[in-house]
Design a protein that fits this description.
about 800 residues, OB fold (Dihydrolipoamide Acetyltransferase, E2P), Phenylalanyl-tRNA Synthetase, Chain B, domain 3, five-stranded antiparallel β-sheet, 22 helices, 38 strands, about 25% helix
């Protein structure tokens, strides 16, 4: 889109000291992106006024003539085919190097054997009109030989080129008046002219009722046409527009056509509202009376056609909106008028149309027809329906100004059905300043908004903002939009750049996840275990082989496979399957898994008002396979001691009865710092065979909540100074009943005397030499006194008393063989 600087100055005062480049920069920073700034005179670079000195026939072409033309600096030979040239005329001459409006570059050339050093120009070649019938003859009173053609035209305007993409969301900026409003806002001035509709006064001054023309409008689809206005005018005389009007249109790239058409284009460029003028005699149908004019806004009929103003016959469909009378379509709504109702040299009465059309409908229609016009581009942006009245009034005033015989010939028609959401929008001033990162005075904020046309009501900490109609169609709807308006007019470059104040906090630590990662790192490290991920499901056959009752297991309503129909209550069945599928590849190996198990009791997560999800908790499963049971059992105990020791947890193993009815060689419980953590199992040979295992398997399963609690209460490892005095060690082997656990003996020894610092079992023996139901437990006992070196006599006294106490409590005897 092009903007005329002189046109903008009609509406807003621009400081004389502000250069066009400075204005372009301010517009770019505050409102729209300016792609370029150029002088209007640049269009006529190397086009000068020349005087035809001599004309003679071309020797080699009947229709061409040779002219000698004085351009001030030289006399040029020019070949010309125009029929109207004669000696003594003044005409525009395009010199070599000139680029005309149609893109033609002028060069010295040879035409039919004769040299041509330029070109005498017609109006269309200069972009002044579509006339190519003859060269343009200049007024001898104004023109001087050698003067720049731009000076002859008085082309002294500056044109600013706006990037259309930057105003896609701003329908109010597709015109000079809208951008003048923006310039006034960021320059801190007022609009010189505030435009308002004068339709009521125009209608009141129309001709007498006997000559009035009644306009009847019928809108069949108000969604596609929220507003349609029409005004009849008579006394029209079609002629050339006055120079000021032509100059304005030429400056922004539009060719003048005729006074009425030029006015509709002028109003569109001034206000952003497309308009159209129909020849009233073409609008009337055969059924209409002379004093009546019926306009119907409807969808096109199937297979309906129309010849548009560009001379093309176009096929319409039912999705397209047309302007019609009782008989035929007159225009494609919002896109282009029809040739059957266009203004011509015989037109004496017109109907001025000012309407609002659905943007999506216009866009789709234009795309289907392959038409994109200045009008359709504006309608696509969601124009303000209130703009129709102002544009209609403005166009009527201009027509009366340039055509003194023109009169309003009847009441205007106005069919409207629209609503706009104009708020109010509540904006908290504290929020606004916080989001801007800078405190702006309330007075300044109010001034900015009011200069843009917003209505503002103040309260203590907030503003109630009413959106002007020209911003309410698609642009302003929430508080963030208001924030943007304040920021851009205040000036983004006026906001002091500052790094945001961000409080640096370490991320919140999920203690359970951190421990889980630590567990995985430990078990996959020195123990060399591989992590396993299994489904949370088990099957009935799988549990049956392990002699586990499935009565308390939860069944799946829609199992993914037929052999996994239950939710697991232990990790070990699936870990056993992992051993079976991998046993052919390794001699000795192991897995661990961290996963959830599920029980048929109410959990903590409510599913809805009446149901609860089942209880679930995480377990840690460890499984090892080796060549014999003793190796696998010993290894898994060693891994547990190492693993729990990394968390400063003292581990104990206690033999218990097999509550799961698994046929095992050993079942035990795992204690950490005296608290039950889980269980330890070893599969027997018979069970291993039934499960298809070819290796001896030992497994452990720990409850993660219990493990986390043990870790939380275990404390941290701390540095201890080396012993100041040596410790004394004694080995004791007790023969006891085999039903007494080693842990009971160990606990008793450790707590017997304060000098006993540690107790460690190093041998377990059963044999006929001990007697029936007897076993031998051998311990390392360490004695230590932090205050002095212990003598043998002191250690012996404690040990004698210990042996006696063990005999009294457990019937233990010292083994001496």
């Amino acid at each position: 889109m092009y903007l005329s600087l002189n046109w903008l100055k009609d509406f807003v005062d621009i400081p004389k000291k502000m250069t066009p480049e400075e204005l372009g920069l301010r517009l770019t920073m505050h409102t729209v992106e300016i792609e370029g700034i150029k002088k209007e005179a640049d269009k006529y670079d190397k086009v000068v006024v020349g005087k035809i000195l001599e004309v003679k026939k071309h020797p080699n072409a009947d229709r061409l003539r040779l002219a000698k033309v004085n351009v001030g600096s030289a006399v040029l030979d020019i070949v010309c085919g125009a029929p109207n040239i004669s000696s003594g005329q003044l005409a525009p001459v395009a010199l070599p190097g000139a680029v005309l409006s149609n893109g033609m570059e002028i060069r010295e050339a040879e035409v039919r054997g004769e040299k041509s050093q330029g070109m005498l120009c017609a109006e269309d070649e200069l972009g002044l009109s579509d006339d190519h019938s003859a060269i343009l003859i200049l007024d001898k009173k104004k023109a001087k030989v050698g003067m720049n053609f731009a000076d002859y035209l008085g082309a002294k305007d500056i044109v600013l080129e706006v990037d259309n993409k930057s105003i896609t969301h701003r329908p109010d900026l597709w015109c000079h008046y809208g951008l003048a409003r923006e310039i006034a806002a960021f320059l801190g001035t007022h609009l010189k002219v505030v435009l308002q509709s004068n339709l009521e006064n125009l209608a009141a001054g129309r001709e007498a009722d006997s000559k009035a023309i009644g306009i009847k409008v019928k809108v069949e689809d108000t969604k596609l046409c929220p507003r349609y206005m029409a005004l009849p005018m008579t006394g029209i005389k079609i002629e050339k527009s006055p120079k000021w009007l032509e100059d304005r249109l030429l400056a922004v790239g539009l060719r003048p056509i005729s006074n009425i058409v030029d006015v509709t284009n002028y109003v569109m460029l001034e206000l952003g509202q497309p308009m159209h003028a129909f020849d009233i005699n073409q609008v009337r149908s055969a059924k209409s009376e002379k004093s009546e004019c019926q306009i119907i806004v409807r969808r096109a009929k199937p297979n309906e056609t129309i010849e548009t103003l560009d001379g093309e016959e176009r096929k319409l469909d039912e999705s397209m909106l047309v302007i019609a009378n009782d008989e035929r379509a007159l225009a494609v709504a919002g896109v282009m008028g029809g040739a059957n109702s266009e203004i011509n040299s015989e037109t004496t009465a017109i109907v001025l149309e000012s309407a609002n059309f659905d943007p999506v409908s216009v866009r789709k229609t234009g795309a289907k027809l392959g038409l994109r016009t200045e009008s359709s581009m504006r309608y696509e942006k969601s124009l303000d329906p209130n703009l129709c009245a102002l544009a209609l009034s403005r166009a009527a005033e201009y027509i009366k100004m340039i055509c003194p015989t023109a009169k309003v010939a009847g009441d205007f028609a106005d069919m409207c059905d629209f609503t706009l959401n104009q708020g109010p929008i509540t904006v908290d001033l504290r929020w606004l300043n916080r989001r801007l990162g800078e405190k702006i005075e309330t007075r300044k904020i109010v001034k900015i908004l009011e200069s843009l046309g917003f209505g503002v009501e103040k309260s203590e900490h907030a503003l109630q903002i009413t959106v002007p109609s020209w911003r309410a169609t698609k642009d302003i709807s929430i508080a963030e939009d208001i924030l943007e308006e304040v920021a851009r007019i205040y000036g983004y470059d006026n906001l002091v750049p500052a790094m945001p104040k961000v409080e640096m906090r370490p991320p919140e630590v999920n203690a359970e996840r951190a421990v889980e990662r630590q567990i995985k790192n430990i078990l996959s490290g020195a123990p060399g275990l591989a992590e396993s991920y299994n489904y949370s499901f088990v099957g009935e056959d799988q549990l049956g082989k392990l002699n586990i009752s499935q009565a308390s297991f939860l069944s799946l309503a829609n199992p993914i496979v037929a052999h996994q129909t239950l939710l697991r209550q232990s990790l070990l069945p699936n870990l056993i399957n992992n051993i079976r599928t991998n046993q052919a590849r390794f001699d000795a190996f192991g897995f661990f898994e961290l996963g959830s198990v599920y029980f048929d009791i109410e959990g903590n997560l409510k599913k809805n008002n009446s149901e609860f999800l089942p209880y679930q908790e995480k377990h840690l499963g460890i499984i090892l396979a080796d060549s014999d049971q003793e190796k696998s059992s010993a290894k898994i105990k060693g891994i547990l001691e190492y693993f729990l020791g990394r968390f400063n947890i003292r581990v104990d193993f206690r033999v218990v009865e097999n509550k799961d009815n698994w046929e095992t060689s050993a079942v035990g419980e795992i204690y950490g710092n005296g608290e039950l953590l889980g269980r330890l199992v070893g599969l027997g040979a018979k069970l291993e065979r039934s499960l298809g295992l070819k290796k001896s398997v030992a497994a452990a399963e720990l409850k993660l909540p219990a493990l986390l609690q043990a870790i939380a209460t275990a404390g941290t490892r701390r540095y201890c100074q080396p012993d100041r005095f040596p410790a004394a060690e004694r080995d004791l082997a007790f023969v006891i009943n085999r039903k007494i656990s080693y842990n009971e003996i160990k606990t008793e020894i450790a707590g017997f005397n304060s000098l006993i610092r540690s107790v460690e079992v190093f041998d377990v023996f059963e044999g006929e030499a001990l007697g029936k139901d007897k076993k031998s437990l051998a311990f390392h006992v360490e004695y230590y006194n932090p205050e002095k070196t212990l003598t043998s006599e002191e250690v012996d006294r404690v040990q004698v008393a210990l042996v006696q106490a063990m005999a009294e409590k457990f019937g233990a005897k010292l083994r001496d063989f």
